[in-house]
Design a protein that fits this description.
The protein is α/β, with parallel strands linked by helices. The protein is built from five helices and eleven strands, in the order E-E-E-E-E-E-H-E-E-H-E-H-E-H-E-H. It has two domains: 29 residues, no CATH class; 192 residues, Rossmann fold (3-Layer(aba) Sandwich), CATH 3.40.50. The strands form two sheets. A seven-stranded mixed β-sheet has the order 5-7-8-6-9-10-11, with helices on both faces. A hairpin with a 2-residue loop joins strand 7 and strand 8.
Length: 242
């Protein structure tokens, strides 16, 4: 299929998937820009994300010239599933039936200018006081001293948002001057009305907890909200808009 005018946009579907790709141009000179899921424009660049390195603390992480965006949240908030959904991969971030098992900071490279950072989950794992204290120190250290950190994606179960640990994370980010975008995950677990009410309540609470933070509904299972998150990531990473 080809458009009649240069610069006109059209989409091309592939097989039985609900994904399709968008192009600009005609006369056989099409430039692939983005893919769609459920009609939402998304950036295909995140599909090339791959594991880079892990570290227990800030000193273990590699130095690089790119930007980082960290993903934080309670151990059962669906953080790994969200990262996999956002990158269009099934097992980039390892999921576990035992929430809180992973205690490392994991880096995933999109390109040499953009790194996704999976922070250890909090508030669920049955670990010692010493481990919890070390986690608090390492997270505060990373958030306050990582110079190329551009923002934090904070994931919270839509049914149980703004736990004590979530509020601690918001406080750390606010103190460090970091941008925060909240994902109310597992939105498919609630009906539309209940999910909408949860969104409004969290948005109201953020005016006090972190006035500059934003929030949205998200479902890794239903692949809803991915386009909104990509728009935030694009802005923080400095990617040109499609």
């Amino acid at each position: 299929m080809c458009c009649e005018k240069d610069g006109e946009f059209y989409a091309s579907h592939f097989g039985r998937s609900n994904l399709c790709y968008g192009f600009y141009g005609c006369r056989g000179k099409h430039r692939k820009l983005a893919f769609f899921s459920e009609g939402v424009l998304m950036n295909p660049m995140y599909r090339q994300a791959h594991f880079l390195q892990s570290g227990a603390k800030l000193a273990d992480l590699p130095m690089h010239a790119g930007r980082e965006v960290a993903f934080a949240g309670r151990s059962n908030a669906g953080k790994s599933s969200a990262i996999n959904a956002l990158t269009g991969q099934q097992s980039l971030a390892r999921t576990s039936k035992t929430p809180g098992r992973t205690q490392l900071i994991n880096l995933f490279e999109v390109n040499d200018q953009a790194i996704l950072v999976d922070l250890p989950g909090y508030g669920f794992a049955k670990v010692s006081v010493a481990v919890k204290t070390a986690w608090q120190h390492n997270m505060a250290d990373y958030l306050s001293r990582r110079g190329n950190l551009r923002g934090v994606i904070l994931l919270m179960d839509v049914r149980h948002p703004l736990t004590e640990h979530d509020q601690q994370m918001l406080s750390w980010c606010r103190g460090a001057g970091l941008a925060v975008h909240c994902l109310l995950t597992k939105a498919d677990k609630l009906n539309r009305g209940a999910a909408g009410n949860a969104l409004l309540q969290v948005r109201k609470a953020l005016t006090t907890l972190h006035p500059n933070a934003s929030v949205q509904l998200f479902s890794a299972l239903k692949k809803t909200g991915i386009g909104e998150v990509h728009a935030v990531l694009d802005s923080w990473f400095g990617f040109a808009s499609a």
